[in-house]
Sequence to fold (533 residues):
Amino acid sequence: MKIHYLILPVICSVLFSGFYAGCGHGVLVRKLEYNAVTDNYRTYYEIFVGAFSDSNNDGIGDLRGLINRLDYLNDGNPDSLNSLGIEGIWLMPVMPSPSYHKYDVTDYCRIDRQYGTMDDFDELIGECDKRGIKLIIDLVLNHTSSQHPWFLKAREAVKTGDMDDTYARYYVLETEKISGKAWYEFEKTPDGIQYYYEGNFSPSMPELDLDNPDVLREISDIVKFWLDKGVGGFRLDAVKFYYLDEDIKNIIFLKWLNEECRKNYDEVYIVAENWSGDISIQNYYEAVNCFDFGMSGTSGDIYFAAQQIAGITEFAEDLAFYQKQVLEKNPRAVLNPFISNHDMDRAAGFLSVDDRAMQMAANLYILSSGSPFIYYGEEIGMKGSRGTASTDANRRLAMLWGDGDTVKDPRGSTYNSNNQTNGTVKSQSPDRDSLLNHYKNLIRLRNANPEIARGIIEPLNFSQYTSFGGFISNYSGSKAAVFHNTGETELKVDLSLYTDINFSVIRGYAGKGQAALNGGILSISGYTSAVIK
Ligand code: CA
Fold:
């Protein structure tokens, strides 16, 4: 955490003509300007409620626990440096479900009892509103739980041979197993005809028939219910499974869903999980925003750049190309970069728990276009990988508050979260150089420069450097530039050799060292990123 804003104490700029020469190093400098984000370019925070914070000592995180922790995420005071400073929250599913992860829903318009009540949820929305946080919730439309009343009624209907039953028609039922999809035995009719249901995730997740107008009416009612409540949008689970690997049909459905949501709420934020290659994701952007999976994980752009496997020039070129492709599909599109999520090994593990790599990875995606998503605990370097036990529960371990929170690791996990720590919120908070404080300042640096999230990316060619590079972000004619030095060595770079723009002001820097700009020469320490204008 060493971000120093232009707005250093006035005395410094009086005493020194150069930026920060001799002052400011290692000192947290508060910014004078802060752009509270009110549009759809926000830093989001993904929360698995069950592992986040427990308010009633039953070991399971709940909504009241989250409400109690909101000040940690955003205390509503833009001048405060006590909060992480996110302006968006994605809640993994909160609806009633028999599973610990709740991706198999039994009632789309209620709150799971383990997480609390609808009153708690309403209070959470109110508290988020006070803080300017947009709350989006996970919506699982591909399948229900096999315990959903619709499916139970469908089962009874098949048993009586009533295949025209309303609920039998909610699901994809066939008398033979069609190849390429997963089918499970359902029931036999009185005539002895065996029916199978489609369930590509698991037998407990029967797939809805999204061609059925009655199902569409249900979905329309569900999104209206939550939007009327004040939810700011949805994270759509598993959209490529809606019609398994039929992108065109999925996109048509998503366009319909997007229109349903926007009927009364134009600012709704929808982001879809299409865990696919770039080209497929770019096509889905025609309908809705998508997570940029190509940035994430151990084969993603962020990892390659942070670990110096790829150069920053390549990173910037990839980013610009991707953005261009997406904006051609939809001029309103917002990119959604991230390092990892609840279905992936945590970044602190694959970044070798190297503090420098974690800071640089954070710089690469937070100082990027669009709305970045932080997976809870990423900001303190929490670990957790599928491991030899091969369970996703290891990726969803208890948040490490370090202050006696009673939340426990989820059922089925084999890691002990207490042994998987680079520190806790409590231990990192007072440490100026901690990853947590790095994230706090990084988000502020991003927000103080609205060009970064909103602009058109123009990559700069520094291909002779292996670990240095950057891009210009042009937002309605206002240009800012972001530079990253992922290597160890301090560099002095004459920017006039690479761009005609006369950048003259350091807006801030983040990482292990410092940056300065004098006469067009950028000086930047190793493991440091800088924003200039
Ligand atoms: Ca609880």
Observations:
- The pocket of calcium ion is lined by residues 54-56, 58, 60, 62 (CB under 6 Å).
- Confidence is low (pLDDT under 50) at residues 1-32.
- The two ends are 21 Å apart (CA to CA).
- The longest helix spans residues 312-329.
